[in-house]
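seq:
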Amino acid sequence: MPTTLNSAKTRAALRVSARISLELLLVLLMTAAALWLLGRMWPIVWPVIVALLLTTLTWPPARFLRRHGWRPALAASVVTVLFLVLAAGIIVLIAVPVASQSGELTAGVVNGIQQIREWAAGPPLNIGDDEITRALDTAAARIQGSVGGIVTATLTGVGTVVNGLITTVLALFLMFFFLKDGPRFLPWLTRQLPGRLATDVPAVATRGWDTLGAFVRSQAFVGLLDAVLIGLGLWIVGVPLVLPLAVLTFVSAFVPIVGALFAGFVAVLIALVSNGLTDALIVLALIIVVQQLEGNVFQPMVQSRGLGLHAAVVLLAVALGGSLAGIIGSLLAVPAAALVAVLWNYLREQLSEPVREPDAVTGGSEPGQVSGTAGPGAGEPDGGPAPA
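struct:
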């Protein structure tokens, strides 16, 4: 006989669905409000994030000095100065060889342009000097017509550079204070929070700090791997400035997508103007292969192990972060996903039921009966709920 729906069960299912939908809607609204507030506070939040990332790199030597009797302020000062010296050394390591070979590179650029003109003048293009001159005149006229847009773009770029310098200075000062006073933060935070929050928030913060350190170390490892592979390839091909290009590749690895594109473009350009088109194509193929291995194999594998995330989750997080917030979103997508995973795992630990062992004392227990199931507080640890 045909079955009919139970009206009471149907109404109950609808009520449960409506309640869950309302709760999810409230969660989404709170998430949207938090993201909006984060966007409004971004000029302050971004230097803090950069400082935390730098602190994960510089904390191990600072901790070593503190454990050997150095005062916190002195250890933080020494590590900060050493970090600045290392950063300046990297810049010098890139700039000095480039400046010393700038004449050869300039001559290579001029010869490359001349070769392109000679190739364009021959078959099958047969472009003469008059046509090239007219094209240059047309381009100059268009540039003159868009002077206003160029000025606006230049001012925007200058503003971006100034904001970047301000962010860098703030991040360095914050890094110093994090190195100096960081170990005192969690005890101070524990004293400020009431009830369970005094335990939960420091625990989540500790796990989040460990996860952030794992992200920075994995990113540094991937950048070092890229620098070694690309540097060896450039050395085998015979491209000049191998060491500066390798250092540039390592540094640019901390900026996803755009960093790799910029370092690859510089390497191909130098190979083109110094060694010719064939070597430039070889370098381009080498960079494409290494970047594909790094983006699809090395980085997901290393970050998935260090952060406890599946490789597919890492790829999807980078794609989502890039689509939502561009370069910064790509940079912060993986650590943000890892921090969300840390919070979710902690919540699961706190909300899950404790595993109970069978009663070994009373031999007449029924199958499945556990100790402590009789009396007040049955079914809860220690005879009752944990204090709030």
